[in-house]
Protein backbone atom coordinates (compact mmCIF):
# COMPACT_ATOMS: atom_id res chain seq x y z
CA UNK A 1 0.00 0.00 0.00
CA UNK A 2 1.06 3.59 -0.65
CA UNK A 3 2.03 5.48 2.48
CA UNK A 4 1.46 9.22 2.87
CA UNK A 5 3.95 11.16 4.98
CA UNK A 6 3.29 14.73 6.03
CA UNK A 7 5.74 17.20 7.47
CA UNK A 8 6.02 18.94 9.77
CA UNK A 9 3.64 17.38 12.28
CA UNK A 10 3.08 20.81 13.80
CA UNK A 11 4.12 24.39 13.25
CA UNK A 12 3.67 27.77 14.82
CA UNK A 13 3.64 30.89 12.67
CA UNK A 14 2.66 34.53 12.93
CA UNK A 15 -0.39 36.12 11.37
CA UNK A 16 0.58 37.22 7.88
CA UNK A 17 3.28 34.57 7.43
CA UNK A 18 3.44 32.12 4.57
CA UNK A 19 3.08 28.53 5.72
CA UNK A 20 4.12 25.45 3.74
CA UNK A 21 3.15 21.87 4.48
CA UNK A 22 4.50 18.93 2.52
CA UNK A 23 3.06 15.53 1.77
CA UNK A 24 5.03 12.69 0.24
CA UNK A 25 3.61 9.51 -1.27
CA UNK A 26 5.68 6.34 -1.14
CA UNK A 27 4.72 5.66 -4.78
CA UNK A 28 3.49 7.91 -7.56
CA UNK A 29 -0.16 8.89 -7.36
CA UNK A 30 -0.24 11.31 -10.31
CA UNK A 31 -2.28 14.28 -9.05
CA UNK A 32 -4.87 12.32 -7.05
CA UNK A 33 -4.12 14.26 -3.91
CA UNK A 34 -6.53 16.18 -1.71
CA UNK A 35 -5.97 18.50 1.24
CA UNK A 36 -8.43 18.77 4.12
CA UNK A 37 -8.69 21.30 6.92
CA UNK A 38 -10.06 20.17 10.26
CA UNK A 39 -10.75 22.71 12.96
CA UNK A 40 -11.04 21.49 16.57
CA UNK A 41 -14.24 19.56 17.11
CA UNK A 42 -15.32 19.96 13.50
CA UNK A 43 -15.73 17.79 10.43
CA UNK A 44 -12.88 17.72 7.89
CA UNK A 45 -13.39 20.16 5.05
CA UNK A 46 -12.08 19.65 1.52
CA UNK A 47 -9.75 22.51 0.58
CA UNK A 48 -7.89 21.35 -2.52
CA UNK A 49 -8.22 18.41 -4.90
CA UNK A 50 -6.31 17.24 -7.94
CA UNK A 51 -3.26 18.52 -6.05
CA UNK A 52 -3.85 22.14 -7.00
CA UNK A 53 -7.57 22.83 -7.64
CA UNK A 54 -9.23 24.98 -5.00
CA UNK A 55 -12.60 23.69 -3.81
CA UNK A 56 -15.41 26.19 -4.29
CA UNK A 57 -15.58 28.78 -1.54
CA UNK A 58 -12.05 28.21 -0.25
CA UNK A 59 -10.06 31.45 0.16
CA UNK A 60 -7.44 32.09 -2.49
CA UNK A 61 -4.67 32.33 0.12
CA UNK A 62 -4.69 28.52 0.03
CA UNK A 63 -2.83 26.85 -2.83
CA UNK A 64 -1.53 23.41 -3.67
CA UNK A 65 1.13 22.06 -5.97
CA UNK A 66 2.91 18.88 -6.89
CA UNK A 67 2.49 15.67 -8.82
CA UNK A 68 3.72 12.12 -8.56
CA UNK A 69 5.11 11.71 -5.07
CA UNK A 70 5.71 15.21 -3.69
CA UNK A 71 3.00 17.72 -2.86
CA UNK A 72 2.75 21.03 -1.07
CA UNK A 73 -0.02 23.01 0.62
CA UNK A 74 0.73 26.71 1.02
CA UNK A 75 -1.18 29.21 3.09
CA UNK A 76 -0.25 32.73 2.04
CA UNK A 77 -0.84 35.47 4.62
CA UNK A 78 -1.82 33.20 7.50
CA UNK A 79 -5.03 34.27 9.25
CA UNK A 80 -6.19 33.48 12.81
CA UNK A 81 -9.07 31.41 11.41
CA UNK A 82 -6.57 29.10 9.69
CA UNK A 83 -5.69 27.49 13.02
CA UNK A 84 -6.48 23.84 12.29
CA UNK A 85 -4.98 20.49 11.47
CA UNK A 86 -4.38 19.84 7.80
CA UNK A 87 -4.41 16.39 6.21
CA UNK A 88 -3.43 15.17 2.80
CA UNK A 89 -5.14 12.12 1.30
CA UNK A 90 -4.56 10.07 -1.83
CA UNK A 91 -7.74 9.18 -3.66
CA UNK A 92 -6.66 7.43 -6.84
CA UNK A 93 -7.59 3.97 -5.59
CA UNK A 94 -8.00 2.05 -2.36
CA UNK A 95 -6.75 2.34 0.28
CA UNK A 96 -7.46 6.08 0.43
CA UNK A 97 -4.67 6.73 2.90
CA UNK A 98 -4.44 9.95 4.89
CA UNK A 99 -1.25 11.66 5.91
CA UNK A 100 -0.58 11.98 9.61
CA UNK A 101 -1.69 15.60 9.78
CA UNK A 102 -0.05 18.97 10.40
CA UNK A 103 -1.27 21.12 13.27
CA UNK A 104 -1.01 24.83 12.51
CA UNK A 105 -0.98 27.28 15.41
CA UNK A 106 -0.54 31.03 15.69
CA UNK A 107 2.63 32.26 17.36
CA UNK B 1 -28.57 20.46 -0.62
CA UNK B 2 -26.22 17.55 -0.06
CA UNK B 3 -26.62 16.01 3.38
CA UNK B 4 -25.12 13.01 5.07
CA UNK B 5 -26.76 12.51 8.44
CA UNK B 6 -25.27 9.95 10.78
CA UNK B 7 -26.75 8.13 13.72
CA UNK B 8 -26.04 9.17 17.30
CA UNK B 9 -23.47 8.37 19.93
CA UNK B 10 -23.01 4.73 20.84
CA UNK B 11 -21.59 3.27 24.03
CA UNK B 12 -20.55 -0.36 23.80
CA UNK B 13 -18.76 -2.90 25.93
CA UNK B 14 -15.59 -4.60 24.70
CA UNK B 15 -16.38 -7.54 22.45
CA UNK B 16 -19.70 -6.10 21.28
CA UNK B 17 -20.60 -4.84 17.80
CA UNK B 18 -21.74 -1.43 16.65
CA UNK B 19 -23.66 -0.39 13.55
CA UNK B 20 -23.50 3.23 12.45
CA UNK B 21 -25.82 4.62 9.78
CA UNK B 22 -25.35 7.44 7.30
CA UNK B 23 -28.46 8.70 5.49
CA UNK B 24 -27.85 10.55 2.25
CA UNK B 25 -30.02 13.17 0.61
CA UNK B 26 -29.78 15.92 -1.98
CA UNK B 27 -28.06 13.86 -4.67
CA UNK B 28 -28.50 10.64 -6.62
CA UNK B 29 -27.37 7.99 -4.17
CA UNK B 30 -26.53 5.31 -6.72
CA UNK B 31 -24.10 7.53 -8.62
CA UNK B 32 -21.77 7.85 -5.65
CA UNK B 33 -19.58 5.72 -3.47
CA UNK B 34 -19.21 6.20 0.27
CA UNK B 35 -16.09 6.01 2.34
CA UNK B 36 -15.82 5.57 6.09
CA UNK B 37 -13.03 7.01 8.18
CA UNK B 38 -12.46 7.28 11.89
CA UNK B 39 -10.59 9.52 14.28
CA UNK B 40 -9.55 8.39 17.74
CA UNK B 41 -9.34 11.09 20.43
CA UNK B 42 -6.43 13.41 19.71
CA UNK B 43 -5.36 11.35 16.70
CA UNK B 44 -5.41 11.70 12.93
CA UNK B 45 -7.84 10.45 10.33
CA UNK B 46 -7.84 6.78 9.42
CA UNK B 47 -9.56 5.47 6.28
CA UNK B 48 -11.57 2.30 6.86
CA UNK B 49 -13.25 1.31 3.63
CA UNK B 50 -15.53 2.15 0.74
CA UNK B 51 -18.85 0.96 -0.64
CA UNK B 52 -20.44 1.61 -4.02
CA UNK B 53 -23.89 3.15 -3.79
CA UNK B 54 -24.65 1.56 -7.15
CA UNK B 55 -23.88 -2.13 -6.76
CA UNK B 56 -22.70 -2.51 -3.16
CA UNK B 57 -19.12 -3.41 -4.09
CA UNK B 58 -16.79 -2.87 -1.17
CA UNK B 59 -13.15 -2.66 -0.30
CA UNK B 60 -11.58 -2.30 3.09
CA UNK B 61 -8.35 -1.15 4.62
CA UNK B 62 -6.36 -4.23 5.53
CA UNK B 63 -6.61 -3.34 9.21
CA UNK B 64 -10.42 -3.67 9.14
CA UNK B 65 -10.75 -6.59 6.76
CA UNK B 66 -12.89 -9.24 8.43
CA UNK B 67 -13.98 -7.02 11.32
CA UNK B 68 -15.85 -4.25 9.49
CA UNK B 69 -18.77 -4.61 7.10
CA UNK B 70 -20.21 -1.90 4.89
CA UNK B 71 -23.67 -2.27 3.43
CA UNK B 72 -26.07 0.06 1.68
CA UNK B 73 -29.85 0.26 1.37
CA UNK B 74 -30.95 1.95 -1.83
CA UNK B 75 -34.58 2.06 -0.66
CA UNK B 76 -33.65 4.50 2.10
CA UNK B 77 -30.43 5.95 0.64
CA UNK B 78 -28.55 4.83 3.71
CA UNK B 79 -25.14 3.27 4.17
CA UNK B 80 -24.14 1.35 7.27
CA UNK B 81 -20.83 0.53 8.89
CA UNK B 82 -20.73 -2.39 11.29
CA UNK B 83 -17.64 -3.01 13.40
CA UNK B 84 -17.41 -6.22 15.43
CA UNK B 85 -15.31 -7.43 18.36
CA UNK B 86 -14.94 -3.91 19.67
CA UNK B 87 -11.89 -2.98 21.72
CA UNK B 88 -11.15 0.11 23.77
CA UNK B 89 -8.94 1.44 20.98
CA UNK B 90 -11.96 1.48 18.65
CA UNK B 91 -13.21 4.48 20.64
CA UNK B 92 -13.36 7.17 17.99
CA UNK B 93 -15.53 9.46 15.92
CA UNK B 94 -16.63 7.61 12.79
CA UNK B 95 -17.34 9.56 9.63
CA UNK B 96 -19.02 8.73 6.35
CA UNK B 97 -18.17 10.74 3.25
CA UNK B 98 -19.33 10.56 -0.33
CA UNK B 99 -17.04 9.99 -3.29
CA UNK B 100 -17.78 10.26 -6.98
CA UNK B 101 -15.67 7.87 -9.05
CA UNK B 102 -12.04 9.11 -9.00
CA UNK B 103 -12.90 12.32 -7.17
CA UNK B 104 -12.08 13.23 -3.57
CA UNK B 105 -14.30 12.93 -0.51
CA UNK B 106 -16.23 16.14 -0.96
CA UNK B 107 -19.04 15.95 1.61
CA UNK B 108 -18.92 14.42 5.06
CA UNK B 109 -21.39 13.35 7.68
CA UNK B 110 -21.32 15.04 11.07
CA UNK B 111 -19.57 12.10 12.70
CA UNK B 112 -20.69 9.49 15.20
CA UNK B 113 -18.89 9.01 18.50
CA UNK B 114 -18.45 5.37 19.45
CA UNK B 115 -17.22 4.76 22.98
CA UNK B 116 -15.99 1.31 23.91
CA UNK B 117 -15.79 0.89 27.64
CA UNK B 118 -16.63 -1.64 30.30
What is the terminal separation of chain A in angstroms? 37 Å
Q: pLDDT average of chain B, as an integer? A: 97
Number of helices, where a helix is a run of at least 4 consecutive DSSP H or I residues of chain A: 0
Radius of gyration of chain B: 13 Å
Category from helices, strands and their pairing of chain A:
mainly beta
DSSP summary, beta strand count of chain A: 10
C-alpha Rg of chain A, in Å? 13 Å
Q: The biggest beta sheet of chain B, please?
A: 7 strands, mixed
User: If interface size is counted as residues with C-beta under 8 Å from the partner's C-beta, which chains form the largest one?
Assistant: A-B, 24 and 22 residues
Q: What is the CA–CA distance across the termini of chain B?
A: 40 Å
Give the fraction of residues assigned to helices of chain A. under 10%
Largest pleated sheet of chain A: 6 strands, mixed
Order of helices and strands of chain B: EEEEEEEEEEE
Question: In summary, what is this structure?
Answer:
Chain A contains no helices and ten strands. Chain A has 107 residues and is mainly β.
Notes on the protein architecture:
The complex is a heterodimer of chains A (107) and B (118). By secondary structure, chain A is an all-beta fold. Chain A is built from no helices and 10 strands. In chain A, the strands form 2 sheets. A 6-stranded mixed β-sheet of chain A has the order 2-10-9-4-5-6, with no helix packed on it. In chain A, a hairpin with a 3-residue loop joins strand 5 and strand 6. Chain A starts with a strand and ends with a strand. The model of chain A has no long low-confidence stretch (mean pLDDT 97). Chain B is mainly β and 118 residues long. In chain B, strands 2, 4, 5, 6, 9, 10 and 11 form a 7-stranded mixed β-sheet that branches. In chain B, strand 4 and strand 5 form a beta hairpin. The chains are: A mainly beta (107), B mainly beta (118). At the A-B interface, strand 4, strand 5 and strand 9 of A face strand 5 and strand 10 of B.
